[in-house]
Design brief:
By secondary structure, the protein is mainly beta. About 10% of the residues lie in helices and about 30% in strands. The chain folds into three domains: about 100 residues, no CATH class; about 120 residues, Immunoglobulin-like, CATH 2.60.40; about 80 residues, Immunoglobulins (Immunoglobulin-like), CATH 2.60.40.10.
Length: about 400
C-alpha cells in the first residue's frame, strides 16, 4: 500500500465507532468495541492505529479519520444525534489538529461551552459528567396590551446536565444515578432567576419551565423563563433577568393597545384514546406495512411489536401521531398477527392494537419441542481434530460404510 502511494482513512473501532454505548445504562447502541464518552474519542493517535515496521505512520500517510455509525439500534435523527454528539466534536478536532498539539484535559474545558450551543440549536446530545457544562441565558421580545395580567415568556436558559425543581423555582445539576445517569455543571447548588420588569415595579421570581427535559436519550435542560405581570401604560420597556449566580440577560417589552395576547403553547390532551391502524390488510414477509399511530404523547417513543416480537420504535410528532412504514421481517411466519403499540407516557402506559396478515414462505412447525426440554443422553462417536477422512476398502466415496 505504501509503495503504491495510497493513504489511509483511519477508523479505529474502540475510539471511532459512535454507535457504541456511552456506558452500560445507555438504552441504545452496541458494546462490541467498548463504551465511552467524548474524551475517549479524543485521546488517541490515528497515526498509531496502523504501524509500519512498528513505527507510527507520518501524517502524510493519512487521508483523515472517520467516525462510523451503524443503525441497528438507532431509530430516527434524534437518536442518531444523541449517539454522535459530543463524540463527533472530538473527531472534528482530531481531523484538523496535529497530535502534538492535542490535550484531552484542555479539550474537556473547551467542550463545556458546546452544550449550551447544541441546546440552543436544537441538537440532541449526551450530557454526561465528563464536561463541567456551562450555562447561558437570553431574553426574549414580548408584545402585550396594557392593563392585562398575563404569564409571559421573557427568556430562555440553556443549562446542560440540570433538572428543574417540581415547583419550577430553580434548577440544579442532576446528580441522581438513575436511568439518565449523573451529569456535571458549572452551576453550584440551586440556581434561580428573578425578573425586573423595567417599569419600576418590584422584581418577581421567574418560573423555570423545561422545554426539553433531560432523560436517558436526550440532554434536555433547555428552559423557558416565565413571569406574570401587567403593564399599566403603553410604551417600550427594558427588563432584566438576573440569575442567582450573577448571570444576567435583557428582554424588551412593547406595550400597545390592541395587541393580541401571546399565544399559549399547545398542550397535549392526555384524554385522547391511543390508536393504531395498519393500512395493509396483507403484507409479504420482508416488506413493510403502512401504519399510523395517534393519541400518543409527543416526544416519547412508541414501541411496536408484531406477534409479540419487537420490530422497532417511532417518535410521535407534536400532535401525538405519525404515519410510517412498519418493517415485517423476512423471518416472520405466515399467519395473522397482533400488532401492538406501547408507550410509557407521563400519565402511564398507553397501548393500542391492530392486526396484520403476513404471507411468508416460512410455515410454523406444529407440536414443536422446546430446546430447553432437550438434553444429550450420550455420545457414541466424534470427529477428532486432524483425523483423516475414512478411506480404504469397504467405504464409499462419501466415507460411509458400504
Amino acid at each position: 500500500m505504501k509503495n503504491k502511494g495510497a493513504k489511509l482513512m483511519v477508523s479505529n473501532g474502540s475510539t471511532s465507532y459512535i454507535d457504541m454505548k456511552y456506558n452500560a445504562k445507555t438504552p441504545i447502541g452496541l458494546t462490541w468495541a467498548g463504551t465511552g464518552d467524548f474524551p475517549k474519542y479524543y485521546d488517541w493517535d490515528p497515526a498509531g492505529t496502523v504501524k509500519d515496521a512498528g513505527a507510527k505512520l507520518p501524517d502524510s500517510a493519512l487521508l483523515g479519520v472517520e467516525a462510523a455509525q451503524w443503525s441497528e439500534t438507532i431509530r430516527g435523527g434524534v437518536q442518531a444525534e444523541f449517539m454522535a454528539f459530543p463524540r463527533v466534536v472530538s473527531f472534528a478536532e482530531i481531523g484538523w489538529t496535529p497530535q502534538s498539539q492535542r490535550n484531552v484535559n484542555d479539550f474537556k474545558v473547551r467542550m463545556s461551552s458546546m452544550g449550551q450551543r447544541m441546546l440552543a440549536t436544537g441538537t440532541n446530545f449526551y450530557d454526561g459528567n465528563q464536561a463541567k457544562w456551562r450555562s447561558s441565558m437570553a431574553g426574549l421580545p414580548v408584545a402585550v396590551a396594557p392593563g392585562k395580567n398575563l404569564t409571559l415568556n421573557v427568556g430562555q436558559l440553556a443549562a446542560p446536565g440540570t433538572k428543574a425543581s417540581a415547583d419550577g423555582s430553580s434548577i440544579a445539576v442532576d446528580t441522581v444515578d438513575d436511568a439518565d445517569g449523573v451529569s456535571a455543571s458549572s452551576i453550584l447548588g440551586n440556581l434561580s432567576v428573578s425578573v425586573d420588569w423595567g417599569d419600576g415595579t418590584a422584581a418577581t421570581p421567574a418560573t423555570i419551565v423545561a422545554l426539553k427535559a433531560r432523560h436517558s436519550l436526550a440532554a434536555g435542560s433547555l428552559y423557558q423563563l416565565q413571569g406574570t405581570h401587567s403593564y399599566a401604560t403603553v410604551g417600550t420597556y427594558t427588563g432584566t433577568l438576573t440569575a442567582s449566580n450573577g448571570m444576567t440577560a435583557i428582554f424588551t417589552v412593547a406595550v400597545a393597545a390592541g395587541t393580541a395576547d401571546p399565544a399559549a403553547p399547545a398542550v397535549w390532551d392526555s384524554s385522547q384514546t391511543p390508536r393504531l391502524a395498519v393500512t395493509n390488510a396483507t403484507t409479504k414477509a420482508g416488506y413493510r406495512a403502512k401504519t399510523t399511530v395517534s393519541g400518543f404523547e409527543p416526544g416519547k417513543y412508541v414501541v411496536l411489536t408484531l406477534g409479540g416480537n419487537r420490530v422497532g420504535s417511532v417518535l410521535p410528532d407534536a400532535e401525538g401521531q405519525l404515519t410510517f412504514q412498519m418493517p415485517v421481517y423476512p423471518t416472520t411466519f405466515s399467519g395473522k398477527f397482533e400488532v401492538v403499540a406501547t408507550q410509557a407516557s407521563s400519565t402511564g402506559t398507553r397501548t393500542a392494537t391492530d392486526s396484520l396478515k403476513v404471507k411468508s414462505k416460512l410455515i410454523p412447525l406444529e407440536n414443536k419441542i422446546l430446546q430447553s426440554e432437550l438434553s444429550i443422553e450420550s455420545v457414541t462417536s466424534e470427529e477428532l481434530t486432524g483425523e483423516s477422512a475414512p478411506s480404504g476398502s469397504g467405504y464409499g466415496s462419501a466415507g460411509r460404510k458400504d
